[in-house]
Structures are given as C-alpha cells and as structure tokens.
Amino acid sequence: MPRKKPFSVKQKKKQLQEERSFQEYLGKIHGAYTLEKLSYFEHNLETWRQLWRVLEMSDIVLLITDIRHPVVNFPPALYEYVTGELGLGLVLVLNKVDLAPPALAVAWKHYFHQHFPQLHVVLFTSFPRDPRTAQDSSSVLKKSRRRGRGWTRALGPEQLLRACEAITAGKVDLSSWREKIARDVAGASWGNGSGEEEEEDDGPAVLVEQQTDSAMEPAGPARERYKDGVLTIGCVGFPNVGKSSLINGLVGRKVVSVSRTPGHTRYFQTYFLTPSVKLCDCPGLIFPSLLPKQLQVLAGIYPIAQIQEPYTAVGYLASRIPVQALLHLRHPEAEDPSAEHPWCAWDICEAWAEKRGYKTAKAARNDVYRAANSLLRLALDGRLTLCFRPPGYSEQKGTWESHPETMELVVLQGRVGPAGDEEDEEEEEEELSSSCEEEGEEDRDADEEGEGDEDTPACAPGPSLASRNPYSLLGEGEA
Fold it and tell me: Per residue in 76-132, pLDDT tens?
C-alpha cells in the first residue's frame, strides 16, 4: 500500500509532494507487473488520503472482510502498517457469516489467528439466520427486506466489544457501549414477542459528522490516544464487504445507506455509537493484487456494470457450484428434459435468459449478456453462494463441525435469527415481466443493493412478455 509521506507541522500542503510520491508508487506497481496480471485497484489519491486520515484518527482499526472470500479482502500490507508502523490494535471482522456454514466461519477465524497473531478476529452479520433451518431453493429468486427492529438482531456486537476491551485494557470506559448492547438485545426480544413493528426513527438520535475536504488536511505526525475519553474505531475494507451494514448493525438502526456500487461512500463519516465510542466509516478501497479477473468480479472488486465479457466469470462460478441445478435450468438444446447434456457458460446464460424472459429489443432473441450480468449479481448478493475454504479444511471438516465454537455460533444464530418472525421480514420475488425489467434496468446497471432503502417501491407484478398483446387496445380492423 502507498505510505503517507512524512512531514512536519511547519510544512505547507504543497510541499508534501504526496502526488509525486503516489505517482512513483503507481509506476513501481505497473513496472513490476503486467496489466494482464495486475488486478483492478484504486488509482485515486484522494481515496488513499481518506484512508490515511481515518488511520490517523483511529485508536482501533476494524478491517471488514467477506466470510465467503476473506483472503481476497485481507491486504497483508495494511496489517503490517497498522500493527507495526502505527502500533494500533487491528480487529479483523469476518462479516456476512450467515452466508457461510458455521464450521467454515470458525475455520477461517482460527486460520487468521494462526498466521497473523496480532489480529483480534470477530464473526459478524447484520442479518443472522438459524443455520439449522432448511433453506428453500426458491429463495434464490427472492430478496429479503428487514423492517423495524431488523438491525438490532446483528450478531457480533458483543464479541466486538470484548475485543475492544482487550485492546484498550481499561483506558476507556466502555460501560455505555455494553449497556447499549443490552438494550438492543432486550428491545429485539420484545419486538419478536409483540408482533408489532417499530419505526427506525423512534430510536435515540445518532450524532453524525460529515467530513469534507478540510478533514484531509494533515493533522500532524502524532495524536493523543483516547482523546477526551472517547474511543475512535475506524472501519476500513474493500467495497461490498458490508461496512455500512456493520455500522447499522452496531447502531441498531439504519444510519448509513448501503449499495453495491463501488465509491458509494465518497467521504468518511463519523458516528457516535455512545458518548465514549465513535465509529469512523472510510470509503471502500481496493488494494492491488494478482487475483484473476473472474474472482475480482465475484468478490465485488470489479464493477459488474463495467464488464464487457461476463461469460468467463459465469463459467468460473458454474465450475464450482451447480448453477444449472440450483436455478432449475433446462438446457437450450435439450428436447428431452430428463436427458443429460453438457453445459457451458453460454448455455447457462441462454437458459437463464429463457427462464427469466430476457429478450433483445429488436430481434427478440434471448439476451444472454443481460442474463450473465443477472447471474453475477445473484452471486454477489449471496443468493448463489460461492465460499472459499482455508487450506486443509476438507480433511478436517468433521473436526470443525464438532468444534465448540461452531456449536456456539449455531446457537447464537438460532437465538437472534429472524426464523419464523414474519412481521419483521418480508420477502419479495423479483418479477419476470418485461415492464419490471425496463423500469428497474437503470437500478440494476447501477448495482443497487438488494438490502437497499426500505422505502424503495417494488415493481408491481405484471403479465409476461409472451402473454401481453400489444394490439389489445385496438378495435377490430384498426390494426
């Protein structure tokens, strides 16, 4: 990662030569690796400046990763910089644990503990579900929308508090945070039993500080730790790992909008969780790596809307999970549905376009490009789940499944999960009609988050393209 150039307080901003240093960093990266091998990463100096500023302000740094591919979102250079040069406590948050088997989540936790001993690892999810509940295969086509007390069910705030207490070692009074967690747990339990919804605006006000360009000014080489008795926690990570959802889960209600679009959070913001705990949300930032393009797409690093050839990524996904079986696709060349035919990425996209009714505008042929983008978004949302395993997991799978921490995680998810609570969860199936597709095309091209704003109106059901008669309004003989 690029380092911030050292400076003294007396120097002017133009003398810092950050731009020249950053250009040298980019030149070194591009000189060492070819464009074909080098991954998509952040080239905007202003975004890196925001990361530097957040690290300067923070007493503890949260590095949020996606449990489905945590090594993809974990830059070792940041670990060495934070724990070594800055001397700060670093907490690795394995987020979205509801999308992975509990045994796999625990295995990843121990993997990072073993290879990075200075890490504090926490499992977290803003939308827990009971892993013992069987999942319906039709849920692939559904979006879950939480209402009311959904954010108070987050799994992991208690573990995160314990990690922060271990790092601060009593230098900051975190009793107000513990009291808030107890109130959220009690409130969520009360809401489940009452069957009534509570509006998100009914909770206590959260003080939000919107940072501007002035916050990017140098603050000096050193800063007082735990200034004024306030613990500042910086939240950093790649795009689409759930930083905003994590903050909403910690606060207990929605205070940050969520989106799959990289760059959705433009400036870092600070949120006072309690009078003695402040959260600092940094925009998603992509570190350089040597990941293949297909994995970058599936991990949300490379924007799906910018892909010119998505079929290779679909093939990468289909070679690892049975996409055609999960989506109940029929081979486009199969006359007999019971007969087996070899599948390729193009066949999967064409079959999905046929099932969803994706047609080109002029020739009314199956729109395979649009179908490929749709499949990639299903994978990014977690409705088609591809999880990577730590080394040696397959040989020790039975050990991890019977591990005490695995059983504890299963019990916790079952305790706080929304299973059986229909008042607080609403599932809406994506419509297949062309009218919905046309009205929602702009939103999908912008990679709108499936867990987005609650007040976003859903597209009304309509007849399919094949059943709609465009001349039905004309009288006889008027065509």
Answer: 999 999 999 999 999 999 999 999 999 999 999 999 999 999 999 999 998 887 666
Cα separation, 178 vs 260, whole angstroms: 31
Query: Which amino acid, one-letter code, is at 353?
Result: A
Which whole-number Å values give the CA distances from 74 to 55, 63, 126, 160, 362, in the listed order? 16, 8, 20, 18, 45
* Residue type at 237 in one-letter notation: G
| Type of residue found at 168 | T
Same topology for domains 13-281 and 293-385, yes or no?
A: no
The CATH code of domain 13-281 reads: 3.40.50.300
Residue extents of the structural domains in the chain: 13-281, 293-385
Domain 293-385 has CATH 3.90.920: no
Predicted pLDDT of residue 210: 52
pLDDT tens digit sequence for 269-300: 888 889 999 999 888 899 999 999 999 999 99
End-to-end Cα spacing for the chain:
66
- The rounded distance, in Å, linking the Cα atoms of 239 and 396 is 32
DSSP secondary structure letters along 421-452: --SSEEEEEPP-SHHHHHHHHHHHHTT--TT-
